[in-house]
Specification:
The chain is α/β, with parallel strands linked by helices and 311 residues long. The protein contains twelve helices and eight strands. Helix 10 packs antiparallel against helix 11.
Length: 311
């Protein structure tokens, strides 16, 4: 019989992972409204953007403003993605609670996405850790291991390479590590096996699971990861997102579907699902014509549904 945690955290990454893959550039005012309403719905961890050159991702050019606003909301953990030391310095200066450095276990994807080998990314993490410590900052450093279950460019990615990269990130100074199925190759058995081995190495420092729903298995993969003790997952409102340098990658697990599944399982998320669905409808209007995903918005909550808190 599986044992599941009593609570879980959904880290909303739609404002970064979602918007970076959509040609529409949302006005800063609408992004702020998104953060406000996600917070009002009970979300307490939000990845608000990425410190990358505006010419590369104009959709995320206002990340500094997003961090500044998000930090005014009590109890909200604000995270950003950074690809290198320069981006990390901006993140540290902004006062973000956490910066995530992506590393691809697939060498082919690493070179396409970051123009660095995995080991070069690890070396950059060492420099980021030194800069963080020198600044006396409390910003946490998370190493995010992408393409952990395979890659559309390279094909097979060995489990041993994923675990090697994870240990190297921890040795280089990451406070946390996470594992991502960037292109939706994972299945529940492979997730259970990899996360169990990763937990044996990293313990509580294995911070988060990140599953794309390319082949419809994101929620099943979350359930498998839950069985290993991991209880924090990235998701995007309306399942938007993808990866610019991973052909065939579609969006993440949708935040609203994931919240429903967890609450239905008796796992508290602290999220008002009706409020999250209302926000989804608003964001869908802003992103008219873009591919959106998820099913709860169409089917609605079952009459028998009770949130984990109510239960």
């Amino acid at each position: 019989m599986s044992t599941y945690p009593k609570s879980a955290v959904i880290r909303e990454v739609g404002l970064r992972d979602g918007l970076q893959s959509i040609p529409v550039t949302l006005p800063t005012s609408r992004k702020i409204e998104w953060i406000q309403e996600a917070y009002a719905a009970g979300q307490r961890e939000i990845e608000v953007g990425s410190f990358v050159p505006a010419k590369l991702l104009p959709q995320l050019a206002d990340t500094g403003e997003m961090v500044a606003f998000a930090r005014t909301l009590p109890g909200l953990r604000v995270s950003v993605l950074v690809p290198n030391l320069k981006g990390a310095e901006k993140a540290i200066e902004s006062g973000a609670d956490l910066l995530l450095v992506p590393l691809s276990a697939s060498h082919a994807h690493s070179l396409a996405n970051l123009r660095k080998t995995p080991d070069e990314v690890v070396a950059e993490v060492g420099r980021i850790r030194a800069a963080r410590d020198a600044a006396g900052s409390s910003t946490l450093i998370e190493g995010g291991i992408g393409t952990a279950f395979g890659c559309t460019l390279q094909g097979r990615v060995e489990v041993s390479e994923v675990l090697r990269c994870m240990q190297a990130l921890l040795d280089a100074g990451c406070d946390r590590v996470s594992i991502a199925d960037t292109v939706g190759y994972a299945d529940p058995r492979s997730v259970r096996e990899l996360f169990a081995r990763a937990r044996a190495i990293a313990g509580e420092r294995l911070w988060c699971g990140h599953f794309h729903d390319t082949r419809g298995l994101a929620l099943a993969n979350v359930a498998a990861a839950l069985e290993t003790g991991v209880n924090r997952f990235d998701a995007t409102l309306a399942g938007i997102g993808g990866c610019p340098h991973a052909p065939g990658a579609s969006g993440n697990a949708s935040s609203e579907d994931l919240a429903f599944m967890l609450e239905a399982m008796g796992i508290a998320t602290g999220i008002d699902i009706d409020a999250l669905l209302a926000l989804r409808a608003k964001v869908a209007g802003w992103l008219d014509g873009q591919a959106l995903h998820g099913t709860l918005w169409r089917a609605g909550l079952p009459k028998t549904f009770k949130s984990a808190i109510a239960a």
